[in-house]
Amino acid sequence: MKLIFIRHGEPNYKDDTVTPQGRREAEALSPRVLSWHADKFYTSPLGRAQDTGKIALASEADKLETLEWLREFHIEVDDPETGEKRIPWDFMPAYWTTWEDMYDRKNWVNAPVMQTGEIKSRQAFVAKGIDELLASYGYIRKDNYYITEQGNEKVLVFFCHLGVQFVALSHLLGVSAPVLWQNFFVAPTSVTVVETEERVRGEVAFRCKKVGDTSHLYAAGIEPSGAGFFEPVYGKEIKKYF
Predict the structure, then answer these.
(1) 81-118 b/e (C-beta count within 10 Å ≥ 16 → b)
(2) Which residue, 32, 31, 34, 42, is CA-closest to 3?
(3) How does pLDDT run across 134-145, given as a tens digit for each residue?
(4) What is the pTM of this model?
(5) For residues 173 and 206, is the Cβ–Cβ distance under 8 A?
(6) Closest alpha carbon to 227 in 132, 151, 162
(7) Which of 31, 57, 141, 167 has its CA 20 to 30 A from that of 190?
(8) HEC profile for 126-167?
């Protein structure tokens, strides 16, 4: 089985939709998505993901099903210096790399800064959502892998967001979400593919085959957007976290 995660098109956060470039990106993505002949299409409830899915699926947009757990992982935590709120993946390397918990696939949710927001409960909500969905297709979570009586070759497509995509991949692959948040980037409308592997009958691992692929954009002559990639702060005052 394949799980295909697609980040929404270049975002217009103010209006919760996509920019003109985001629309062009979704249009360029459309032939690629339709060629997969996917069994099911899921989307975040947020407008920018919904709009990307509708544009990409065109006349098949009525096949989209909304899942609440695909909503962006915008759970705020306290800035360790100012106490002001910030998203949990917006930290300078000199701060987050000093906490060993941030590298732990299970305990990252217990890192001191993560405990200042509802990170743990929201991560559990995402994990529960994806596990219940996989169970409906015959894949049951057991410890840190999955078991199945009979695997399948279904293709599931998810239109979602950078933050929640990495939380889902963290759960499926056994990698700390902060490591993915801080060290990986997926551009708008990029394609990430995770596929089941059953080396022992009935025992299933999910393996990542590609991350953040934007070949459809280059084929259409569109330069991928850098939305979500942090701007340099050279020459600016940098807040210290310690």
Answers:
(1) eeeeeeebbebeeebbeebebbeeeeebbebebbebbe
(2) 42
(3) 999 999 999 999
(4) 0.94
(5) yes
(6) 162
(7) 141
(8) HHHHHHHHHHHCCCEEECCEEECCCCCCCEEEEEECHHHHHH
